[in-house]
Specification:
By secondary structure, the chain is an alpha/beta fold. It folds into two domains: 30 residues; 171 residues, Glutaredoxin, CATH 3.40.30.10. It is built from six helices and eight strands, in the order H-E-E-E-H-E-H-E-H-E-E-E-H-H. The strands form two sheets. Strands 2-5-4-3-7-8 form a six-stranded mixed β-sheet, covered by helices on one side. It has a two-stranded parallel sheet with strand order 1-6. Strand 7 and strand 8 form a beta hairpin. The N and C termini lie far apart (86 Å). About 16% of the residues have low confidence.
């Protein structure tokens, strides 16, 4: 009888420990912000929109040029100046990242849906492994994954650093004036992201006002 009581008590203590640990974990996850991902370049399952760290909302988006990058799905180099007047979604990704690959059906859908409405998507491919540095491999994967929008390789992570990115995938939405308005790390919140796309598309843009 005593053994049963001891076993019951031990089980209750174990359950309480698990419950407490789970609560602590959930609290940490809910409190997670940009500062928590500064330690290394990682894949992310975060599903919350987070604030930009070194870059603030309404700052001009950094230029998307680098020294050795090559473009796919476009005949010319694109600049932020070229993209003025358009809502631009920039995703930092790599083809070996399953989290990144999971976002691509949504990006492909948005590109087909909004590309005629002053909307552009730019994929910035930042490799994690050596085989992802090979340009031919990236081109092949862009075709296999059905990506029609422009993609730029960033093997030296220079654009990644300009945008203060710390995890794959990371999405930015830039308004028609070239200002950062939204950042999303990881998968999920697709409805929210599309909602912001529509809000930005509905905003007016006048090139004369910017001159």
């Amino acid at each position: 009888m005593k053994n049963i009581k001891y076993i019951t008590s031990a089980l209750l203590l174990l359950l309480l420990t698990i419950f407490s640990a789970n609560n602590i974990f959930n609290f940490i996850c809910e409190s997670f912000d940009t500062k928590a991902i500064n330690s290394s370049n990682t894949h992310s399952n975060l599903e919350d929109v987070i604030t930009v760290n070194a870059i603030s909302f309404s700052d001009d988006a950094p230029e998307i040029k680098n020294k050795t990058g090559k473009w796919i799905n476009t005949d010319k180099e694109l600049t932020m100046e070229d993209l003025k007047g358009k809502v631009t979604l920039i995703e930092f990704w790599t083809f070996g990242c399953y989290n990144c690959v999971n976002t691509l059906p949504y990006l492909n859908k948005w590109y087909e849906k909004y590309k005629s409405e002053n909307f552009e998507i730019i994929g910035i491919h930042c490799p994690e492994f050596d085989n992802e540095r090979n340009f031919e491999n990236v081109k092949e994967k862009v075709i296999d994954l059905g990506i029609k929008y422009p993609v730029l390789t960033d093997n030296e992570f220079s654009i990644w650093q300009k945008y203060d990115v710390h995890a794959w995938p990371t999405i930015f939405l830039i308004d028609k004036n070239g200002e950062i308005r939204y950042k999303k790390v990881g998968e999920g919140k697709y409805n929210k992201t599309e909602e912001v796309i529509n809000e930005l598309l509905n905003e007016k843009y006048s090139s004369e006002e910017k001159n």
